[in-house]
Amino acid sequence: MNWPPHRREERSWTARQRQGSRADRTLDRITVSIPPMIAALDYDPTGTVARVHESALIAIARLEAGFGEHLAPLADFLLRSESVASSKIEHIDAGWRAFGKAIGGGKASDEAKSQLAAVKALIAMVDAAGSGSIRLDDLLEAHRLLMGVDFYTARDAGPLREVQNWIGGSDYTPINATHVPPPPELVADLITDLLAFVNRDDLPILAQAAIAHAQFESIHPFTDGNGRIGRALISAVLRRRGLANRVTVPLASVMLADTGRYFMHLNRFRDGDVDGFVEYLSIGAVHASEAAQDSAMALADLPSRWRDIARPRAKSADEALLAALLETPILNADTAQQIAGTTAASTYRALGKLTDAGILELLSESKRNQIWAATDVLAELDALSAAIGRRTIEQT
């Protein structure tokens, strides 16, 4: 389908500081890529793209209906999976043990805090979309949540950028960049236009999400964090349109499996290849949804397996903890005692028993804030991402 490509314009460039190579220091002209306004554009997939788009809708609906309604903990699990994979694309990977410590409120690494912030930003985006529309304030709030945890990025958390940015190339100037987004004075109008497109109800759902993401990444409206907010926008569109009311489709794992392919399709979108990006995301949605169903079944089997291993007494503290672990796989002593409904001594005995059985792992041995994790649940995060990666690579 015909889709307007980006317009390239040459602009003057003045370096803010004299650093980098001689080419950096002498650069005085750059070529920026200006996306078209898309609020009023229509898109209807045809042929192969239409067929795979329909397959993706069916796969997502099957995941939502088959497990989203009947396995409540799956929602939190998939949110975390999507956020962790999205962070890994940006080379932020704390590992699930450190991530678990951050979730439990323990002392955590900067990477773990950043991954947890990505979870909070995604939740904010999806929850806002559930109200019926996605507003600029929703994007800004998600960005504040994402970037506010780091001292060096907190000052730029929230507002749209007021400087020129770029992707790839030099650290100092846009020389040899793979993409130079539009100048900052155009960003506000382009985002207003994008949000008008996002809030339409007359477009094919997954195609709308795909185009919205590619357009957002092309605008690159923030100084940092654009990738994670842009990927969260996909989930927000699916929630707003009612396709995924409970589950988050873990599409970031598709992108993570082959980042070169992901960025290639984004660049082709900027040349007007909208069908290629819609097809790419649709195929990815099929793989992600089917792998998520496998993870859902694995998670659903865990409570009975845990009971077979621990053999808890009826109405005991360890029985109560086992029943809650799928929904609360990270817990500290206070949370555990609330779940167990018993004394601190009984709760600690139950935690010790489940740890000895290999069901729980002590992530933080600090006496002030011990944190335990259900290892099988957190390990499934890696298993799901790996399964999606295998499906993605085998398809290419």
UniProtKB/TrEMBL annotation:
Signal peptide per UniProt: none
EF-hand domain ranges (all copies): 114-149
Annotated catalytic residues: 220
Segments for region (Disordered): 1-24
Domain Fido residues, every copy: 134-283
Compositionally biased tracts (Basic and acidic residues): 1-13
Keyword NADP: no
Keywords of the record: ATP-binding, Nucleotide-binding
SUPFAM superfamilies on file: Fic-like (SSF140931)
GO MF annotations, alphabetized: ATP binding; calcium ion binding
Positions of ATP binding: 224-231
Name of the protein in its database record: Fic family protein
